[in-house]
Amino acid sequence: MVAATAVLVAGAMIATGSLAVSGATIHASTPTITQGTPFSLSGAGLWLHAVTDSEGRVVLSAAENQAVEMAYFDPSNPTGAPSWKTVITPSQVGASGLADHWHIYADGHHWIVVSDSSAQNSWLFELDDSFNVVGSIQVVKNGLPFSTTVQAPNSNTVRTNDMFLVAEPNGITVAHFLPPDSNRLFRYNFALQLQSITDIGGEQSAQYDQNAGSSAFATSSGFTVIAPTTLAPNMQSNLMELTYDANWNAVSAKTLLATSGTNYAMGTAVVLPGGDMAVTARVLSPLLPSPSGSDNGNIVRYLFDSSGNQLSSTTLVGNGQGNRPHTLLFGNDLITTWDNGGGAVSMEIDTVAGATTTTSTTAAPTTTAPTTAVGSNLLPDTYVMSFTGCNSATSNCSDPRNQTTYLAQSNDGSSWSLAPAAFTPVTASSSGLVVRNGNVYVYGVTDFVNETSQLFEYSEATGQMTKSAVSISGLPSGYGFVDPDPILTTDGSIVMVFYMMCAGITPSPSCSSTSRIESATEVAGSDGTRFTMDPGDRLVTANGSGNAATGTTDPDACFDGHQYVMYVLENGTTVAYSSPSLQGSYSYLATVFAPSGNPAAPPGCLFDPATGTYFLYEALGSGPGSTPVIQRASTTSAAASFPISSWQTVAGASAFGLASTVQLNFPDIALNAPSATTTSTTTPTSTTSTTNPTPPSTTPGSSGSGCASGIGAVAASGAGYWMLGSDGTVYHCGSGGALGSATDLGSAAAIAPTPDGKGYWVVSPSGRVDAFGDAHAFALSATPSGEVVTIASTPDGQGYWLATATGQVVTAGDAPDEGSPQSQGLKLAGGIVNMAPTPDGKGYWMLGSDGGVMTFGDASYFGSPGQLNPNAPPGGSNSILPLNKPAVAMASTSDGKGYWFVAADGGIFSFGDAGFYGSTGQLNPSQPPGGSNSIVAALAKPVNGMVVTADGRGYWMVAQDGGVFAFGDAGFVGSLGGQSIPAPVVGFAPV
Q1: Alpha-carbon distances of 616 from 200, 601, 621, 628, 668, rounded to whole Å
Q2: What backbone phi and psi angles, to 5 degrees, belong to 92?
Q3: pLDDT digits over 359-382, tens only?
């Protein structure tokens, strides 16, 4: 018998195991709940939630001063004051104040939905375990879905301050109340991409009516919603248990609580060991008069068996001053939180004990079995690894037909041994593996003429192994697949990522001008043997140029909770690519390992969510001609490099009882026991150099060297910036870290940073966008019809705008289309050179080369050089005073009430509340400080970019040769001036 546990994480129930013994359903007797003493928590006002994170800690969130704050909480020391951290403020959503929120934990992240005080707008935030926002998206705008690509079933507006969250296997669902008797569900994947919008409630049947104050949790077969029939405090309200399948189709409706003259609402639930359900609700009896300024009442907990029969009730708050209860089962602690009616929050910790199992004919709630089974005695360790070996003393190891595939196991990822009596070595190369339901699936290439793989499926329970042919339908004629990398998705299916090459070519890396990494999805019921090609390409690179001098091969992908990082082998180097979705298009991230004289080997990756660490395994020798052994390196950044000194040997041939002349290759790692933590026992090796370049003088306007180029170079502390060469090379200065270059674009036009300064996008003149760091690529709303000249990020980093020289604006992600010169038929006196979004992302300014400023959306017009001409009335481009040199770039102030732009000769023009802090003209002592009339006669190269400091009290300018000029409080941390760079600088971005 496997004991079942079900834990409600702020509305999302995560269940493991099953309740069955000898074919009979079992049920636990009513557990004993020992009631604790309620206590108040200081520093918080409303909406107190408690959840558990991946490290088993209790985390609180609450509203205070119209913002959301979070804190860790120790249930063993409940009187300790929480150390609150403000995590979401009105400024992050452009609102005057935040009203309500809901909080759950799923997929290694905190998820919080907030509404503004108008109850018309809401946003979903993703936060890491340190409470840092790593992603966000607007869910509802003015009561309607914010997305323009997924439509709601009807046009009724929702109330955003009545909400709940629930985790799904592949994402997060936000529910907003849809008057009069429904909830609208906005279903997102974990990459914050909207998948569908669904309405549930009375439109299906009156018995499914659900009102404000509902909650939900996930079950193995779908979802359960605890819903009141009304929240109105002057009306009777029943409390319902409504069940839905995985697609939110109604299954059953059950009345839990119904009493004449009583209002039951705001119910939340957890399922206790044994299957009983604890429901906590706000209860009003007698009803309040109408209208009433308050809906506070008692907080009461009810126990129900699996048939919905009430077993007991316990009053937690009996003074009529409780509201908004939430419940968490944390081990044996039943934690209930609520508002106590006085602008403060309270908590009670009760203890669940004494549940004994007895046979019953009542069906217990079904629970979700793990997608991968805990290792049996035959293969008990936490990790498994497949790899190949070839004895160089007896075979030609450059021929893949001489490879043998082995299986190993480890408890720490560092010390490995062959799986004892668990796996018979087989003749196969390019192995890859996953573990599912107690079975180890090892894929290896066995047909070296037709380039196909076979599946070796090993049962951990029986020790038996079967061999099956593997096919992929939809492969182009004449092509086969090698280098298989199977990946287990959250729904338990397998996606195969592989290198597609021409069949019959052995052992040539490719028979075409391009290398193609593709993927295919498992056919349901085929048990990992049949796959169907996924649409589109994962990665296509040109052979003999760019990042793939001799081909891109040997993919291995891992998911870090936010993006998929795919490591590949290119010309003896290891290169990282990334995509927000497994079956999406991958963009170049960084060259992470480029050893000298000893080429890198096919990589295998594993991500540890507990520490945020990437582990890379490769078979490396100590030098040319040496016998490769399996080595491992680690980093906390997918774009960081792995210097040769960071690699540690974890297994050689002797560790597996093999001859010392056996060369190891193709390691692939999988988690064997889903209940085990994946924390490494070794400290990740730092890839940062210990020497920092000394910054030159910080005198405004000074320039000199000090920027580092290339991947893995050191970034100085403090302010920083990135510079983009027209060849796609990205140079970093100061705190602008090395995240990668976009040399595979062929040519580059512009660069834009993500809002947190931890990533950037690079765009080509044709409109192709490569994403680096925490930046994500999004589908464009249209194909650019002219040369792209600039890219700008939305405030949340979940979208961007592209602008062409001809005045077209192309949107991506959550970037709204607020119009463009092209769409409005405006005649341009000079081509568009730059754009700047407003702080709330609801508008933007566009700059013409003649200095004309055009406004769209909520962007306000504050002037242009035409207003410098006393003989011309204020206005737009028709009143512009001719510039000495063309305008090249612009930036806005943080409050959106002003902007700057710079001309090619370094002249700065400031409007609205944008302050003037100098220009390159101030380098000429014979001229007074000012604009373009006081500029040094000739710069070494024209200025072509500018960025503003965070507080708006300074700015940098960059010239085509990489010279940087700093003014105001902009700190000078280096430039490329005086250095030889292969292509002119065309883009400039702040950290």
Answers
A1: 45, 11, 15, 15, 10
A2: -75, -15
A3: 222 222 222 222 333 334 477 778
Give me the residue label for tokens 């940098």: 956
Amino acid at 345: V
Encode 235-275 in three state secondary structure. Answer: CCECEEEEEEECCCCEEEEEEEECCCCCEEEEEEEEECCCC
**Mean of pLDDT values over 271-285:** 90
Residues 6+ apart with CB under 8 A from 323: 266, 282, 295, 296, 297, 338, 339, 341
Other Cβ atoms closer than 10 A to 418: 17
Cβ-proximal residues to 102 (8 Å cutoff; 6+ apart), any chain: 10, 11, 47, 49, 112, 113, 163, 164, 165
> Which two tokens mark 858?
């909520």
Task: Round to whole Å and give the CA distance between 106 and 668.
Answer: 26
Strand partners, 533: 520
b/e map of 718-740 (b: 16 or more CB within 10 Å)?
ebbbbbbbbbbbbbbbbbbbbbb
The mean-pLDDT minimum among 166-175, 263-272, 939-948 falls in 939-948
Residue of 894, 883, 874, 878 whose CA lies nearest to 951: 894
Torsion 920-804-815-590 (CA) sign: negative
Question: Which residues neighbour 681 within 8 Å (Cβ) at sequence distance 6 or greater?
Answer: 412, 413, 414
Q: Nearest Cα to 416, choosing from 615, 561, 614?
A: 615
φ, ψ for residue 921, nearest 5 deg = -60, -25
| 199 HSE (CA, 13 A, CB side) | 23
d(Cα 710, Cα 99) in Å, to the nearest integer?
46
Q: 508: Cβ–Cβ under 8 A, 6 or more apart, which residues?
A: none
Q: Is 941 helix (H, G, I), strand (E, B) or coil?
A: coil
Mean of per-residue pLDDT scores for the chain: 79
Beta-strand relationship, 471-473 and 530-533: parallel
**Contact between residue 269 and residue 277 where contact means Cβ atoms under 8 Å apart:** yes
CA distance 784 to 749: 13
Report CA-CA distances (Å) from 289 to 191, 261, 616, 657.
46, 12, 65, 82
Say if strands 465-469 and 452-459 run parallel, antiparallel, or are unpaired: antiparallel
* pLDDT at residue 712 in the model: 23
Strand order from edge to edge, sheet including 182-189 = 159-168, 171-178, 182-189, 194-201
Q: Are 372 and 493 in contact (CB under 8 A)?
A: no
- Nearest by Cα to 338 from 353, 329, 349, 352: 349
pLDDT, tens digit, 9 for 90 and up, residues 914-973: 888 877 744 443 333 333 333 333 467 888 899 888 888 888 888 888 888 888 888 777
Rounded CA gap, 767 and 749, in Å? 9
pLDDT of residue 21: 23
- The residue behind tokens 């995560």 is 14
What's the Rg (C-alpha) of the chain?
31
The model carries a pTM of 0.42
The per-residue b/e assignment along 863-877, b for 16 or more CB within 10 angstroms, e otherwise, is bbbbbbeeeeeeebb
Q: Which one-letter amino acid corresponds to residue 393?
A: A
Eight-class DSSP state of 866? G
- Asked whether the beta carbons of 579 and 570 are under 8 A apart, the reply is no
Residue 468 makes CB contacts below 8 A (sequence gap 6+) with 454, 455, 457, 527, 528, 529
Pairing of β 604-608 and β 277-284? unpaired
Tokens of 355: 């549940």
Q: What angle do CA 99, 795, 115 make, to 5 degrees?
A: 15
The pLDDT score that the predictor gives to residue 443 is: 92
Residue 568 · residue 515 · CB < 8 Å = no
The Cα 398–Cα 392 span in angstroms is 9
| Contact predicate 37/79, CB 8 Å | no
Contacts of 444 (CB under 8 A, 6+ apart): 386, 388, 405, 426, 428, 429, 430, 431, 432, 453, 454, 456, 484
